[in-house]
Design a protein that fits this description.
By secondary structure, this protein is α/β, with parallel strands linked by helices. It is built from 15 helices and 12 strands. Helix 6 crosses helix 8. About 4% of the residues have low confidence.
């Protein structure tokens, strides 16, 4: 029995029983990507959230988000609300009529570049809103490490989505060397994967990482982006992991939860990537966006409350500093007084120093193309030869062309066209 049907039956029973004033409807189900301390903080915020409906919430956190959601949709038992970091997946669900357009109160918080509008059924609509965001164009290093001779940490394993730390490198190189316009064309399927700017990003990545032994390559392919674990199962981070003799790591702002001390510092990645100075203050960003899969009006109310100023402050207040969520500058929330130096640096980059913000390219692509991109990065890392690269780019171009060929109807996949947003 689907969640919606259970909810409707419960409502009918209430209506048929005189004097029954207790709300026995099932909790609204929220599916999201946060586990561990992040998941606990979000769940605590849900428990404290008063949305005026009397409803309660169940949070399901998983690292295998796409697989879980696809399984629930196939069983006709989707969550009421799901939080996804892929615009490509959200676009796919919207065009397949799996999402409900957001009510105006939430749609007003659909800040760019995280929530572009889509045209579905000849109407321009908003289907998701960012709950939290991350800054991706960052390099973390051991304090005092020489920046002119970095040795790079690489951990590419990540359960069902292994490879994305490598795609982040490729994306950042395209953005900083070719600029937002070409980056947008590539991310939205309007540029050949064999274009010199795209191919050059792959070869530049290989040069930056330098020659690696077969043992080091295998270690990176089989080690999580979180690094090795301590005796009590906590991730160390690659910079602090035994066996990784490295000084610098290219990673998103979220990784600060494993670098909570003061021995690691963060800076923009542009210094290490090269490219014109005009793109130095252009940053790649990601986000976790809430979308409504249910016809239950309380699901819309929940998203409205979560994306509100009060909802964001409640969530931030429940989180420890190392997993405290970041929000778009347009949300109008100042940093808390207890913000760490790393938080302040990242906030400054996002708000006062960024010239342009561009959404993560692979998370804009059609899911099948994104997944192929992840796999190609793993294969290239193992064998970074030109012959291998040419073969991989041919394969990715074939998938891009096929995706575009299949996008002839209003219900088919077509990515949003505006994924970069000038700031200030």
């Amino acid at each position: 029995m689907s969640r919606l049907l259970r909810t409707l039956l419960a409502a009918c029973l209430l209506a048929l029983v005189p004097g029954c004033g207790t709300d026995t409807r099932d909790p609204l189900v929220v599916l999201g990507p946060w586990t561990g301390e992040e998941g606990k903080a979000f769940e605590a915020a849900l428990d404290e959230l008063d949305d005026g409906t009397g409803r309660t919430y169940t949070y399901e956190g998983t690292r295998s988000l796409r697989e879980t959601l696809v399984s629930q949709l196939e069983a006709d038992d989707p969550p009421d609300v799901a939080v996804l970091n892929s615009i490509g997946e959200l676009t796919e669900y919207a065009r397949r009529d799996k999402l409900r357009p957001l009510v105006d109160e939430s749609a007003e918080r659909a800040f760019a570049p995280w929530s572009p509008t889509l045209i579905v059924d000849n109407r321009q609509r908003t289907f998701w809103v960012p709950l939290k965001i991350d800054l991706k164009s960052l390099v973390w290093s051991k304090r005092g490490a020489p920046g002119d001779r970095p040795t790079w940490c690489v951990g590419l394993a990540s359960q069902a989505t292994s490879g994305w730390p490598g795609t982040d490198w490729i994306e950042d190189l395209v953005l900083h060397r070719a600029g937002p316009a070409l980056y947008t064309q590539w991310a939205t399927g309007r540029l050949d994967w064999r274009d010199p700017a795209v191919k050059g990003a792959w070869t530049s990545w290989a040069r930056l990482l330098g020659k690696r032994t077969p043992e080091a390559v295998e270690q990176s392919l089989t080690t999580s982006f979180e690094g090795t674990s301590t005796a009590d199962g906590q991730p160390r981070g690659l910079l602090d992991s035994p066996g990784f003799d490295c000084t610098h790591e290219h990673q998103s702002a979220f990784i600060r939860y494993v670098y909570a001390g003061d021995d690691v510092e963060v800076e923009p990645s542009a210094r290490y990537l090269g490219g014109p100075s005009a793109y130095r203050d252009t940053f790649e960003v990601a986000g976790d966006m809430a979308a409504v899969f249910s016809d239950d009006p309380d699901a819309q109310e929940l998203v409205a409350r979560l994306s509100s100023r009060a909802g964001r402050e409640l969530w931030r207040g429940e989180a420890e500093p190392e997993v405290r969520p970041l929000f778009p500058d347009t949300a109008g929330l100042a940093l808390p007084k207890s913000a760490t130096p790393v938080e302040r640096e990242i906030h400054s980059l996002l708000t006062s120093r960024a010239h342009t913000l561009c959404f993560d390219a692979s998370d804009v692509m059609a899911p099948e193309l994104r997944d192929a991109f992840h796999r190609a990065v793993l294969e290239f890392f193992r064998d970074p030869t030109e012959r291998q690269l040419d073969s991989l780019l041919d394969q990715l171009e074939t998938i891009r062309v096929q995706t575009n060929t299949d996008s002839g109807t209003d219900r088919s996949f077509r990515p949003p066209q505006a994924i970069c947003e000038p700031q200030g």
